[in-house]
C-alpha cells in the first residue's frame, strides 16, 4: 500500500492500531502519556482538530503547519517514544503499532465534519460508552471553556457553532443506534 504524502496546510486523518489488534493503552496513564508525547513532538508542527484514544487504536485529525519531511519524522519520533515507554512499562519487546501510521488526506469540509463526528462516536460504537462522557476524545475539550491545545474555535466554526456541533453528534449517534438495533 502506497502511503499518502503529507502536504503542508492540508488536513489529514491519522490513525493506527496495535500489531494484530493488540492493546496499546492498558490504562488511563498510558493515554495521558500518549497525549503528552503528541504535544511534545508535534504541537509546533500540526494543528490538532480532533482525537480519540481507544484501547487498541487511535484517531487524530490534524492540519500540517510544517513541511512533510519534518512532520513525518516527528510522527515517527512520537510513536517510537510512546512504544519504547510502553514496552518498558509492560516488560515487552517488539513493535507495538502496525508498520506505518495510516493517513488520509481530507479534501472537503463535509468529509472533515463527518470524520470528526465519526471519531468522537468511536467510544459508543466500539465500547458501548457514551461518547459525551468519554475522557479520551476531544469532544468534551471542544465544548469546554477551559484552555486547550486543540483548535476548538476552528472546529466549532466548521460546524457553525457549539449548538450545531452537539446536534451533529447527537443526530449521527441516534441514526447509528437505530441502525444497529435493527440488525
From TrEMBL:
This is Transposase. It comes from Flavobacterium polysaccharolyticum. Gene3D superfamilies: Transposase IS200-like. Residues 7-122 form the Transposase IS200-like domain. PANTHER family: TRANSPOSASE IS200-LIKE DOMAIN-CONTAINING PROTEIN (PTHR34322:SF2), TRANSPOSASE, Y1_TNP DOMAIN-CONTAINING (PTHR34322). InterPro entries: Transposase_17, Transposase_17_sf. The lineage of its organism: Bacteria, Pseudomonadati, Bacteroidota, Flavobacteriia, Flavobacteriales. Pfam families: Y1_Tnp.
Amino acid at each position: 500500500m502506497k502511503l499518502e504524502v503529507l502536504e503542508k496546510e492540508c488536513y489529514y486523518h491519522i490513525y493506527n492500531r496495535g500489531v494484530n489488534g493488540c492493546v496499546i493503552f492498558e490504562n488511563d496513564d498510558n493515554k495521558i502519556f500518549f497525549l503528552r508525547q503528541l504535544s511534545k513532538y508535534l504541537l509546533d508542527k500540526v494543528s490538532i482538530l480532533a482525537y480519540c484514544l481507544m484501547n487498541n487504536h487511535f484517531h487524530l485529525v490534524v492540519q500540517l503547519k510544517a513541511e512533510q519531511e519534518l512532520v513525518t519524522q516527528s510522527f515517527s519520533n512520537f510513536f517510537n517514544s510512546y512504544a519504547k515507554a510502553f514496552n518498558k512499562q509492560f516488560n515487552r519487546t517488539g513493535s507495538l503499532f502496525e508498520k506505518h501510521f495510516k493517513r488520509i488526506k481530507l479534501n472537503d469540509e463535509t468529509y472533515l465534519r463527518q470524520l470528526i463526528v465519526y471519531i468522537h462516536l468511536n467510544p459508543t460504537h466500539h465500547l458501548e460508552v457514551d461518547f459525551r462522557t468519554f475522557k479520551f476524545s476531544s469532544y468534551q475539550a471542544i465544548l469546554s471553556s477551559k484552555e486547550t491545545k486543540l483548535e476548538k474555535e476552528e472546529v466549532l466554526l466548521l460546524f457553525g457553532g457549539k449548538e450545531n456541533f452537539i446536534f451533529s453528534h447527537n443526530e449521527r449517534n441516534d441514526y447509528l443506534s437505530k441502525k444497529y438495533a435493527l440488525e
